[in-house]
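subagent[fold] <- orchestrator: predict structure for attached chain, return tokens only, no commentary.
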Amino acid sequence: MALFPPLPPFADVLRRSVAELVGTFAIVFVGCGAILSAGPEAGAGTLEVALAFGLVVGVMVSALSHISGGHFNPAVTLAFLITRRLSVVLAVAYWLVQFAGAALAALLLRWIYPDAQEATLGTPVLGADIELGAGLVVEAILTFFLVWVVFATLADPRGSYTAIAGLAVGFTVAFDTLVGGPLTGAVMNPARAFGPELVSNVWGDFWIWYVGPLAGGAIAALLYDELYLRSARPVPVGPPETGVEEPGAGMAATEVRMGVESPPPPGREPGKLT
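subagent[fold] -> orchestrator:
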């Protein structure tokens, strides 16, 4: 089995990347715009900001997940890459457009909100009395929740909410923001941090909002993949007289990844040896 999925055609990469660009742009523009509208003070309008981020993420995931997977977040893209659900080329393309979309949104917000007191454009900062280590752990935990829900709804074909995954993902962003907003800004997304940081040129403790989400998302992805998306036992392979059917080319890999057993051949009852 190949280490990563085959390379997609250029046209497909472009089509998916545009969706990621639009989604990430919308998240930064709406979410950071809500922060600026609520007020420049740290923690101002936490409920409004949580609703803004949760709604825009939920809508964009629902609208575009059938095209690009609805990542809009380098931490989510990394999670799909390390679990071999995304090719390296497509992951790099996603990362480029995600950071670009966030920067474009921040530039537009700078034009709309030119006042000096709002020049940080929603750049995340640590709350009062929150140490660096605590901030890093908070961001990792919040992103763990987010990626865990993404895998349960978007990556797991057995998920109950696959058709409405955006709702679950949006709710997760909203409750993460409610608890983590006053602590770290509840970024959970390196692109969301990068756009405002780049345009406002404010980089204080910037690494927290990159290392934390990437680490937390990676842990969630690997754990969910190992526990729920791999078969509990090896797919049996052997000649028909042994009572099992040898899978065709590529079938074993699919079954191991998805945890689905081969259906019995015609005329053979499930679980019955011939």
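orchestrator: received. Logging for downstream: Residues 62 and 164 are 7 Å apart (CA to CA). The first helix runs from residue 10 to 38.
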